[in-house]
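Before the break, one more example. Copy the sequence into your notebook; we will annotate it together after we see the structure.
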Amino acid sequence: MQPPIAKKIPTERKSTYYQTVDDYAWLEDRTKSKSEVLDYLKAENAYMESVMAPTKELQEELYQEMRARIKEDDQEVPYRLGSYWYYRRTETDKQYPVYCRRKDKDDAPEEVLLDMNALAEGKKFISLGDYEVSDDGNWLAFTTDTLGFRQYDLRIKNLVTGETQDRIATRVDSVTWDSDNATLYYTQEDEVTKRTNLFFRIKRDGTDETLVYNEEDELYNIQCHKTRSGSYIVLVIESSTTTELHYKRVGLAGEFRVLFPRLEGREYMLDHRGEEFFIRINDAGKNFRVVSVVAEKPVLEEAQEKIAYREAVMIEDIDCFQDFFVVTERERGLMRYQVCSYNGEKHSIEFQESVYSTSAGDNYEFATKLFRYHYESFITPDSTYDYDIETRTSTLLKQLPVLGGYTPKEYETVRVFAKASDDTEVPISLVYKRGALEGEPRPLYLNGYGSYGIANDVYFSSNLISLLNRGVVFGIAHIRGGGELGEDWHEQGKMMVKKNTFTDFIACADFLVESGYTTREQLVVTGRSAGGLLMGAVANMRPDLCKAFVFGVPFVDVMNTMLDTTLPLTVGEYLEWGNPNEEEACRYMQSYSPHDNIEVKEYPAMLVWTSLYDSQVMYWEPAKYVAKLRALKTDENILLFKTKLEPSGHGGASGRYDRLRDLAFEYAYVLHQVQ
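Here is what the structure looks like once it is written out:
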């Protein structure tokens, strides 16, 4: 079967500093209903299926392997909230979790709050957004999306009677209860741009809706929450570089007050205890410090410093409890917790593995002596701990079960460093079957992201075992643009130095080949979303880098997307990529935009996948990219394009078994390329 060839309909795209002829603009269908567009996507899917047909048996083998490692009827560790213990569980052969609770006694009957399987009946996709129980425990506010377009409807469930109201609002991003258990606050996104800009107060029956705040600056989004103490409702207004917080005592009439007015480049967040706000703020340096101010009379100039700014340490979060607070820190790419008393004493929770990740758990109780956290590494399954601040000991509550006899000692993990073109050391985390690197170079699957200051940390996945057991090494390149090494690491890979992200990844791949970990013919690289941009830029710059590329929901049509302010997310993205209406930024962005820089030359094998209903990266970006690449590339290497035409989100399918099917397909592709 021959690949489909998309027709060319030249369309001039022109702005102040950018001009091009786009032969494939006809693929941009916001209605997602034009027959000629759908027919093309279906033709690409048919070609993909025909090429991958010889791997069907392998796909099924991988799927069954991965499913067999999952304890399908499992339950998460319950967390305390009020007089109930809340938890989530799964059932055998069911795609989605069930959200439950029990009264504060061992023999109390289970109450099912939300059965996502029941809500998903007759639907191809469902995603739970916000999930908030009222203070009296009688009402549940929750949001769901059934398309994958991140358009969430708000509903209220009476937890006493079991009745659920029809939706009372749509396009809801966040929701929180006031202390009267009858009033809610929620934020709402714009229908077209999907920028969250409106803040409402509403009664739980859907009446008395009042607009509280409208954020008019297109660079900013808003979100609301209640402090762990339960004392304040907080409205967070932020761009990617600047924050402004508004706050109000629960249960009291009156307007929201501004904590610190927005000042370009100043970012901060708050938590509350007693008469004070504890604030993480970057006024002394880009990696933040922690201060406290009087909640009712907050004056930054009079703030008391609790944790000083340190150039080498990124303060990522702060969590206040009645008798202590916890500061999440990151140094040299690794995380730890500073446990602090309010009298100034502090100590650290640190970890022994050389490569790991950790995150705060479900810490909803304010009056507690325990801090819950999760810990995992490439070889240690996700583990839930409670840390006792009095005994300074961590108690393992549960470790993710891995069926089938998984033994961590059979695998190894290591962190190595590549030298970038400017001599910057770039970390690479690797995991492999023990002894795999003692002989010849091995197949290697390398992941990269490098955007938004998001740390691409290591993680445990029982699914990876299927690759590792087949001799594949898996790696993550912690390239600039991400947040693994603090805010400076992010700033060195954004805006007018974005190309550092791409050259860092190339340096990592070259290092792994030159050091004997793998060969070019055994190396496959992958990235999703902004990581898909990375893949596209690298493929143009170094098509000889590896055997194959895997693109997931890739941001590859940088110029046309960033010039279209009617698309979701565009304007806010100016602070990450640059504003294409400014000449210098426009020229620079155009110089690396994957779609704009496809050339008549040889490219390696590629798998590109997307979702028709993705709201973060429109499906037509990869569709146009593939169409243009087919027309210009001069090699015989296979180019595959897969579009999920059914409701599906930015992350793919919503059901856990459906996600495994998709992953089995990806892994089969990788193995087919390198073995």
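The mean pLDDT is 97. The first strand starts at residue 11 and ends at 14. Try to locate both features in your own notes.
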